[in-house]
Design a protein that fits this description.
- With 99 residues, this protein is of the alpha+beta class.
- 43% of the residues lie in helices and 25% in strands.
- The protein contains 4 helices and 4 strands.
- The protein is globular, with a radius of gyration of 13 Å.
Length: 99
């Protein structure tokens, strides 16, 4: 995991967020997502600079995951590292809205 993924995992593991279980590096179809709450069908992707060159691939992946009923949240590494609590709050709002 990247430093940003490690920091976010510290906030999501052990049901710390709304007592919901998150999994990391979870296969869904032919993809492996960074984090997912299966109960609420919310996926969290943490993207580094290499994703700037892969926007079409990421959009296709997101469309496929949404077609399977998932809500996909994407954050840049610098967002997670610099605004961790705001990112966690955004994730909380997403899972809360899918209750």
């Amino acid at each position: 995991m990247t430093e940003a993924e490690q920091r976010l995992w510290q906030k999501l593991k052990r049901r710390q967020l709304a007592t919901l279980k998150f999994r990391r590096q979870q296969p869904i179809g032919s993809f492996i997502v960074d984090f997912v709450c299966l109960e609420r069908r919310v996926i969290v992707e943490v993207d580094g600079g290499q994703h700037a060159d892969r926007v079409p691939d990421d959009e296709q992946r997101t469309c496929w995951l949404q077609a399977q009923g998932y809500r996909v949240l994407r954050f840049w590494n610098n967002e997670v590292l610099g605004e961790t609590e705001a990112v966690v709050q955004a994730i909380f709002e997403a899972v809360k809205s899918r209750a």
